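Whiteboard transcription, Tuesday session. T.W. wrote the C-alpha cells on the left side:
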C-alpha cells in the first residue's frame, strides 16, 4: 500500500509505543480530511471495509474504496462533548494514533495540539452482525476489518503555544476570539482542521436527529473479519484466530473501563456544581445524579464479569485447543453482552450530558 508520508514509527523515534495499547475504537480527528470523506462515500454504498494495522508506533487505517459488505447503518442519538490536548509525542500517539505521524512536527518546544469535538449520534450495525471475508464485494484483498459503528458530529483541531490553548474556550464552538478579549488570538493559534457547524451540532444534540452539517466521522468501532468460508464442523478456526477475537473483546472492555472512569469523574464534578444551585432545584438533580452513579457502578461490575469470562475463554483455548462449535457459542454470546454494555454506557453519557446542561443553567442560590 503506498505511503503518503512518514509512518508513525518514523515520526515518533524513541517513543515507547509498545507501552500504549492500540485503540479498538480510534478517534479520527487527526486523520486526513480525504480519508474521512472517503469513509462517508463508501458508507453510502454499504458497510465500510478497511485495512487496519497497528504494530508498535506504526498505525495504519485505510478505507478500501472499491470494497463493501452488504448492509447499512442505523442512526441513534448520542451526546458527548470533549477536548483532547497532546503536549508531547507520547500523548499524541496515545490519544490520536490515526494520523499522528503527520502532526508530530507541530509539537515543537512548548507547543501543544488541541482538538475539541461534539458528538451528536452513532451510526451502527445491528448487534450480532458479523462478516466473513468471502462475503465482501469488490476489491478486498487488503481487508482486515469492517466498521461496525461510526460516531458523528463536528470538531476542530488546532496547534499553538500551551499558554494560548490550554484552558481557552472551545476551538470548535468558538474558533476565534477577538484581540483584547483576554484569551488567545487567531494569530497565536494554527487552525489545522475543522469539520461540521457548531450551531448545527447544537441543534442536532437538542433534537436527537441527524444533521448533514454535523456528520463528520469522529470515531469508529472496528470489527475483525472472520476467515472466508464456513469451516467444516471437524475443522475449527485456528487457535491464533480464536485468541485474537477474545483479546479484541478484552481491549474493547478496557476502553469502556476508561470511559466509565471519565463518567464517574463527571458525576463528582456535577455534584460539586450542584451546590451552587437554588434549593428547589437541588433535590431532583441530586437524585438523578445518584441514580446515574448507581448505574455506572452496575456497569462497572458487569464489565468486570465480562472481562473475567473473556480471560477464561482465552485460557480455555490455551488449555484444550480449538473447538469450533463451543468456541463460536462462547464468543458470540460474550460479544453480544459486550455490545449491550457499550450501549448502556452510551446512554449514561447522554443522560449525564443533559444533566450537565440543566445544572449549568439552574438558578443560583440566593
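and on the right, the sequence the group agreed on:
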Amino acid at each position: 500500500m503506498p505511503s503518503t508520508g512518514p509512518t508513525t514509527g518514523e515520526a515518533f523515534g524513541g517513543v515507547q509505543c509498545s507501552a500504549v495499547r492500540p485503540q479498538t475504537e480510534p478517534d479520527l480527528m487527526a486523520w486526513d480530511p480525504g480519508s474521512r470523506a472517503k469513509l462517508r462515500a463508501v458508507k453510502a454504498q454499504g458497510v465500510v471495509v478497511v485495512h487496519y494495522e497497528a504494530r508498535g508506533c506504526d498505525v495504519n487505517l485505510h478505507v478500501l474504496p472499491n470494497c463493501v459488505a452488504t448492509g447499512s447503518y442505523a442512526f441513534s442519538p448520542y451526546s458527548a462533548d470533549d477536548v483532547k490536548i497532546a503536549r508531547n509525542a507520547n500523548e499524541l500517539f496515545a490519544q490520536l494514533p490515526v494520523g499522528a505521524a503527520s502532526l508530530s512536527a507541530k509539537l515543537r518546544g512548548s507547543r501543544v495540539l488541541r482538538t475539541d469535538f461534539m458528538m451528536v449520534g452513532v451510526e451502527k450495525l445491528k448487534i450480532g452482525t458479523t462478516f466473513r471475508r468471502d462475503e465482501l464485494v469488490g476489491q478486498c484483498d487488503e481487508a482486515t476489518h469492517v466498521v461496525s459503528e461510526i460516531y458523528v458530529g463536528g470538531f476542530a483541531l488546532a496547534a499553538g503555544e500551551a499558554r494560548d490553548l490550554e484552558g481557552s474556550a472551545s476551538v470548535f464552538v468558538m474558533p476565534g476570539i477577538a484581540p483584547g478579549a483576554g484569551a488567545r488570538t487567531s494569530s497565536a493559534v494554527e487552525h489545522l482542521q475543522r469539520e461540521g457547524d457548531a450551531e448545527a451540532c447544537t441543534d442536532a444534540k437538542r433534537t436527537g436527529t441527524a444533521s448533514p452539517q454535523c456528520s463528520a466521522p469522529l470515531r469508529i468501532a472496528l470489527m475483525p473479519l472472520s476467515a472466508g468460508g464456513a469451516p467444516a464442523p471437524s475443522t475449527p478456526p485456528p487457535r491464533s484466530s480464536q485468541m485474537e477475537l477474545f483479546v479484541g473483546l478484552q481491549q474493547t472492555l478496557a476502553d469502556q473501563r476508561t470511559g466509565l472512569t471519565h463518567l464517574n469523574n463527571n458525576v463528582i464534578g456535577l455534584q460539586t456544581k450542584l451546590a451552587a444551585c437554588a434549593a428547589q432545584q437541588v433535590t431532583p438533580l441530586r437524585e438523578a445524579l445518584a441514580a446515574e452513579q448507581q448505574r455506572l457502578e452496575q456497569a462497572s461490575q458487569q464489565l468486570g464479569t465480562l472481562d473475567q469470562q473473556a480471560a477464561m475463554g482465552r485460557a480455555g483455548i490455551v488449555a484444550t485447543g480449538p473447538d469450533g462449535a463451543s468456541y463460536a457459542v462462547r464468543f458470540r454470546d460474550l460479544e453480544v453482552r459486550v455490545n449491550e454494555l457499550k450501549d448502556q454506557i452510551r446512554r449514561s453519557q447522554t443522560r449525564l450530558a443533559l444533566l450537565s446542561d440543566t445544572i449549568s443553567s439552574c438558578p443560583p442560590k440566593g
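Someone added at the bottom: Residues 1-5, 176-186, 229-237 have pLDDT under 50 and may be disordered.
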